[in-house]
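Section 3.1: Structural characterization of target chains.
Under the original work plan, the team committed to producing a structural model for every single-chain target entering the pipeline before any wet-lab resources were allocated. The record below documents one such target. The sequence was received from the expression subgroup and is listed exactly as submitted; it comprises 334 residues.
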Amino acid sequence: MILKSLLAAVVGSVDAERLFKTLHVPMGLMTEGSAISRAHMAQAMNMALFNDLISRVPSGRAYVEETIAAGGKVNFDHGALRTVAWSANGTLPPGRTAIARLLEPLGFAQVDIYPLPRLKMTGYAYRHLDLPEEIAQFFVSELHPEQFSPAFQTAVTRVVSTSVDPLTPDESTLLARLAKGETLGLDEAVALVRACVRGFGRHHAEPSLSDYETLKAESAEMAWISTEGNAFNHATDRVADVFATAEAQRLAGRTIKEKVEISASGRVRQTALIADKVKRGFLDVHGRRTERVVPGSFYEFISRDFLPGSGRLDLAFDTGNATGIFNVTATGEN
């Protein structure tokens, strides 16, 4: 099978087998042959990113393991990450540009913009053009430092100016070829998917503790970016009843948001486990490395209704929902 061969080359055969047992995979991609489509590469990238997220989020991993043990599967709805719209970004393209250049050649298109004024951010939804309901979407957010204090902006510059572009010239060439509609061979597709997965990470140096505290005082989201960068912020399971799922997680002893976020339309309902804590490095006032426990990534749940009279799922996001979900990476908030 094309997809399995591609994924196994990216994450290893053991993880690939487990991911096929864990996630719903579009039937149209369960094909034999040698022709590798952009949808194959997009799905392989998404499965690898899900694998990475679960490896870093113990609460989400426990939920997934219980779901599989009960005979179920995860319906991967969307993933999310955070970026900074700031020109002093080292050699890494600023803001969502660094991610859009990976997504668009693989068949994703920006379909909506979601202002997040309370967070001084903007969210951008990217949906796959070939299989929009079956290949997980992306919610890419940008933080706007110019809306914060001068001290905050200076701290942002010190943090992100050390960023290094993870893509090599050869990998950028592969993206350009794919964007032009060229066909890639298996080895090229493997190299490209690996490069795309690598793009979801922290590409700047460890921040100073003083800069982290300056950022956290004004934006928990920018403080999170300073330690995690463009890492996959969360993966979302599309479930039938998010209220029932939330209650089951409470009974299982997991810490979950108290409130289920409901979109203005009423058709999209979301909640999430509170972000697991991770140990991250910082530089103290003497330039010595120290460590602190900070919020990491998390696992989310969503229920979507069909659009009236269309037979199609409502794949939209919601500004209010997104703002509420962001709180799960703010220390002490739920």
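Strands lie at 76-84, 108-116, 121-128, 137-143, 234-238, 261-262, 268-272, 277-283, 289-295, 298-304.
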